[in-house]
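Rotation project, supervised by the postdoc (A.L.). Task for the rotation student: set up a whole-complex structure prediction and record inputs and outputs verbatim in this book. Inputs entered:
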Amino acid sequence: MNRILKNRTLKATAIAAAVIGVVGVAQARDQVRIVGSSTVYPFSSYVAEEFGATTDYPTPVIESTGSGGGLRLFCNGVGEGTPDITNASRRMKVSEFERCVENGVTDITEAFIGYDGIAFAQSIENDPMPVTREQIFLAVAAMVPQDGELVENPYTHWNQIDDSLPDREIVIVGPPTTSGTRDAFEELVLEAASESFSEAYGGEAYSDVRTDGGWVDGGENDNLIVQRLTQDTTAFGVFGYSFLEENSNVLIGSTIDGVEAGPEAIASGEYPVARSMFFYLKNQHGDDVPAMYEYADMFMSEQMIGDLGYLKGIGLIPADEQARAEAREQVANKVTLEKSDLE
Amino acid sequence: MSQSFDDISAQLRKRHRKSARLKWFSMGALGLAGLFLVLFFTDMLNKGLPAFQQAQIQVQVDYSEQASQIPLAAVEEEVRDLVSRGFLRTIPLRMKNDPELLGVQRSEWVLADGQVDQYLKGHANKLRDDARERVDRLAAEGRVALKFNTTFFTRGDSKMPELAGIMSAAVGTVMTMLVTLAIAFPIGVMTALYLEEFAPDNRLTQIIEININNLAAIPSILFGLLGLAIFINFFGVPRSTPLVGGMTLALMTLPVIIISTRTALRSVPDSIRHAAFGVGCSRWQVVRDHVLPLAMPGIMTGSIIGLAQAMGETAPLIIVGMVAFIPDVGASFTQAATVLPAQVFTWSGEPDRAFIEKTAGGILVLLTILIFLNATAVILRKKFERRW
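Outputs recorded:
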């Protein structure tokens, strides 16, 4: 009886040891782990695939978690279980940097890869409708100024906002609050436009979106928004520029403040709703995961983010030559990001 | 108070009308459900079947010194922009790994660019007019053709639609399901055995029973959060792996297995147990030699259905990081992997229009597997189930 018991304990220990052994694997890794923005994801995964196919390293693992979600995982700490690189469709916020430092992630390099525009588009069956950011703001905001007072958004048709606009119901399908595209839309369109009414909002930037049906959350998947626009011809959509380019046979973009969305206008900053895209490297992982620098170098190379690079073909809008060279230099030298850079 | 004959027959007619109406309504509901199913299938087949064919192009490949530096130089200029970059970019690495390839010149059928494929299928594409003319000419010569898409079944995900396949997701699914089964099946069956055969019927076991039934109805994403909190953050199981995915899905499958096992055990008549006890079997012997074998078909059916459910699940796997871009076919349980429904989800978000057919193709494969699994469950039940 005693022996059986002993035998059992032995077995139990063996199983427990096996489980722990499985769990506590791997210090040095070949495989780079990447998280972050769904906007950068197509570019990042393109480079990752190229990296896996043309080198002896395994393909990096990329999760599309959104810019904020990616930085949260990235700043969770150093070591196994935390990602090596995070993608972001905006710059890291100071608060995020502070959280990183608090958790011991002190040596970060920033890599700037290029631009992406946000399109305001509709079904091609309609006539083109040029808009201004103020008009979009008045169509989307939850509270709008009227006769010097803030009231709940009363506009149901575009021509109520401005006589030059058609008599068409206001329906705008856009990304939900978890999306980086939504962050950028709120910042670049709503907050920017609200400044022209700043008195009404007490001088503060305003970006609350109406919830009475004028704005519809279309989900993280930009394809769903595109599909919706082809069926519902009254609706407008807000989504990444690459989806407009890809679907130019069914959709037509609106000019914003008189500028048409296009590669040149976005790269030059003329098109007002454009943003920069980045990824961040955790240098403290550099010794254990050497492949991350080779991946980063490939990403920063001319053949990827250059004027004739592959990423241009899938919607990246390259920065000008000097900016690219500077960004490349910064990555090659593993320049540590300082808090003062972000302020 | 007697009712007249007319009253009664009027009432009868009314009741008959009511039951006829019920019949028509329920037939209508069935018809509607059938219609949706037919619409869904025709839509999926329409969009998905082209995914099983892929354009290939016959080219003269010249494995020269120059090609090992600049892969584009390996093929004639006429077809350079029509050949998939997925083929070209592998040339330098292949030549490095196989020195004998240097100097070889041969005619090969290679993957054509995704845009050529879309053009041949009559879908929207970005080919320029002169490229279209060249494709038309090559097609007339028989040097460009749609062939069975083996790539779709032998390769993992890719950003190039012509290279994208379901292999890595399929392998990931198999490994994840193995982990799920290895955990959920023994624990589930044992739990059910205890509750059904050994446990006393008291307040405690009743509470446990209610909780198990509740667990089966919990939204699956909560299991993902639980998996993240316990397996990844507490036990440090590596993220995005079949191990953590399988463990998470096992949590979800457990209640299904427990409930179906209990039902199967309950359907074994007590007379069998009594007879076994009567000839002096211990409780363990009764369970092992009599109850369990008789209940097995029911247990298997329940487990397969639970597994099929887990196989179609994405929500909890997003949380534990299994919805990711993973082109490499996994080789171990602790290597990052993705699963079939997650692959479908990823493809549905691609901007490139050629991924629409990949998405539908992936759905068709997943549906085929699920129908096969469910059919197995039905056959097992029909074949081995005994009525007492």
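Student's summary: The interface with chain B takes residues 22-26, 31, 33, 38, 41-42, 45-46, 48-50, 52-56, 58-59, 61-64, 80-81, 220-223, 240, 242-243, 246-247, 249, 310, 314-315 of chain A (CB under 8 Å).
Supervisor addendum: DSSP finds 15 helices and eleven strands in chain A.
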